[in-house]
Design brief:
This protein has about 400 residues and is mainly α. It has twelve helices and six strands. Strands 1-3-2 form a three-stranded antiparallel β-sheet, covered by helices on one side. It has a three-stranded antiparallel β-sheet with strand order 4-6-5, with helices on both faces. The longest helix is centred in the C-terminal third of the chain and has 29 residues.
C-alpha cells in the first residue's frame, strides 16, 4: 500500500497584509514612539521662505523683558532664529533666517515668547525649546461669569502658601504659572494633558485635592509591575458629588382672621373702564390718553433724577467758627454753689503737723475706737521709762 500524501490547506492571508514583506531589521527592541533628536546637519538645505510670529505683552512686563532680552537673543541664535523686541508697539517677534537648521524650531520659539508674555521667567520659558517639552496656555476667564466665584476658584488652584500648585508640579512634572485670566503650563506632553484637566475641573467647582489623590494613587500603582496589564479602577478613589443647597430663610406667614363670609367681588376691567369713562372713548382717544399718562410719568421721573444729580453739586453749609469762639468768650457764667463748696473745704482744712512736734494722738483717725488709743499710750509710757534708765557706755575691759 502506498502512503497517501495529506496536503494541508494554506492559511488564509489577510488582505491588508497581502503585499507586506518581512522586515528583518524591525525587531521588538526598537521603540517606535521615541522622538529622534534633530541635529544641525540633518537638513540638507536652508529654508526657502521666511516664517515669523509676533505676540503682544502687557506694560508691566516691559522692564523685565528689557533686562532678559539679550539672553533670549543669544538662546535663539544657537538655532538660527532672529528675535526682535518692539517697546513702542509692545510686541515680541521671532523670525527664521538662512542659518536656521531646524524647521520646527520657529513654533517652539513662538511658544517661548508667549510664555514670556504670560509672566513665566526666562529660565523656565527656554525649556520649551527642548524636543520632549511643550507648553499650554489655558484660558480660565470664560468658565464662570461671577467675578467673586472666579477669584475663589482660582485661589483654590493655588492653595495656601502655593502648596496645591507645588503638589501639582511634583506629580505632573510640569511648571505651572497662574497669572490673571490664564494658566501657563510647561512640561512633557502627558503632564500637560493632566494639568489642563485638573485646571478645568477646578474652575468647574471640583476641588484639586481629589485629582491630586488620584495622581498619587496612580504613581504608587505604576511601581508595581504585576498591575501593568490590569485595570486600576478598583484602586482609584471614587468621590460622590454632593450638591449642598443653602437654606433659605422661611417666610413668616401671617394668619388672617377667619370670617365665614366670602371676600367681596373685585371689579372687572370693564367695570373700571366704565367708572373712569374710558369705556365710552374711541380707540385713538384711549391711545392718546395712555401716551399722555406715560409722558407725565417720564417727565416726573426725569425731574427726580435731575434733582438727585444736582444734589451732588450743592455745597454743604459751613459752620461759623468765629461766632462760636466769641460766644464762648462772652459766656462768663460761673457756678456759685460749686465755688462756695470749694471755699468751705479749704477753710476747714488744717495744716499737716511736722515730724518734730508730731503728737501720736493727733495722727489717729477719729473713726477708730478708743481701745487701740489706750494701748498705744501705754506703749509710749513704757518706751519713755526705758529711755530714762542710765546707759553704761564704758567699753568692757
Amino acid at each position: 500500500m502506498t502512503d497517501e500524501l495529506t496536503v494541508q490547506p494554506a492559511a488564509p492571508v489577510n488582505k491588508n497584509k497581502k503585499y507586506r514583506k518581512e522586515k528583518p531589521w524591525d525587531t521588538d527592541d526598537i521603540d517606535h514612539w521615541k522622538i529622534e533628536e534633530f541635529k544641525a546637519g540633518d537638513m540638507s538645505s536652508h529654508l526657502l521662505e521666511e516664517s515669523s510670529f509676533a505676540t503682544l505683552f502687557p506694560k508691566y512686563r516691559e522692564k523685565y523683558l528689557q533686562q532678559v532680552w539679550p539672553n533670549v537673543v543669544s538662546c535663539l541664535k544657537e538655532y538660527g532664529v532672529h528675535a526682535l523686541l518692539d517697546l513702542i508697539e509692545g510686541s515680541m517677534t521671532v523670525k527664521t533666517t538662512r542659518k536656521t537648521w531646524d524647521p520646527y524650531i520657529i513654533v517652539k520659539a513662538r511658544d517661548m515668547i508667549k510664555l514670556l508674555a504670560r509672566s513665566v521667567p526666562f529660565e523656565q520659558a527656554k525649556r520649551v525649546l527642548q524636543d520632549e517639552m511643550t507648553c499650554d496656555i489655558i484660558k480660565i476667564s470664560n468658565v464662570t461669569r461671577n467675578k467673586e466665584r472666579f477669584v475663589k476658584r482660582r485661589q483654590r488652584l493655588v492653595g495656601p502658601n502655593s502648596n496645591t500648585l507645588k503638589a501639582l508640579e511634583l506629580l505632573t512634572e510640569c511648571y505651572i504659572k497662574v497669572q490673571g485670566s490664564t494658566v501657563a503650563a510647561l512640561g512633557p506632553y502627558k503632564g500637560i494633558k493632566q494639568v489642563r484637566n485638573i485646571v478645568m475641573d477646578t474652575m468647574n467647582n471640583i476641588h484639586p485635592i481629589y485629582n491630586i489623590k488620584i495622581l498619587m494613587t496612580k504613581r504608587e500603582l505604576m511601581r508595581d509591575p504585576a498591575l501593568a496589564n490590569e485595570s486600576w479602577d478598583r484602586f482609584l478613589p471614587k468621590f460622590k458629588k454632593k450638591n449642598v443647597q443653602t437654606k433659605k430663610p422661611k417666610k413668616q406667614v401671617v394668619k388672617k382672621k377667619y370670617t365665614p363670609f366670602p371676600p367681596p367681588q373685585q371689579p372687572s376691567k370693564i367695570d373700571l373702564q366704565i367708572e373712569s369713562g374710558e369705556y365710552f372713548m374711541k380707540e385713538h382717544e384711549r391711545r392718546q390718553k395712555k401716551n399722555e399718562e406715560k409722558g407725565q410719568a417720564q417727565s416726573l421721573k426725569n425731574s427726580q433724577k435731575k434733582k438727585e444729580k444736582e444734589a451732588a453739586f450743592v455745597a454743604p453749609k459751613e459752620e461759623n467758627i468765629v461766632a462760636k469762639t466769641l460766644d464762648k468768650e462772652n459766656d462768663n457764667s460761673v457756678d456759685i454753689d460749686a465755688l462756695k463748696k470749694k471755699l468751705k473745704k479749704k477753710k476747714f482744712k488744717t495744716p499737716a503737723p511736722t515730724t518734730s512736734d508730731a503728737n501720736p494722738d493727733s495722727l489717729i483717725s477719729p473713726t477708730q475706737s478708743d481701745e487701740p488709743v489706750k494701748k498705744k499710750k501705754k506703749k509710749r509710757k513704757a518706751e519713755v521709762a526705758v529711755s530714762a534708765e542710765p546707759v553704761d557706755t564704758a567699753e568692757p575691759v
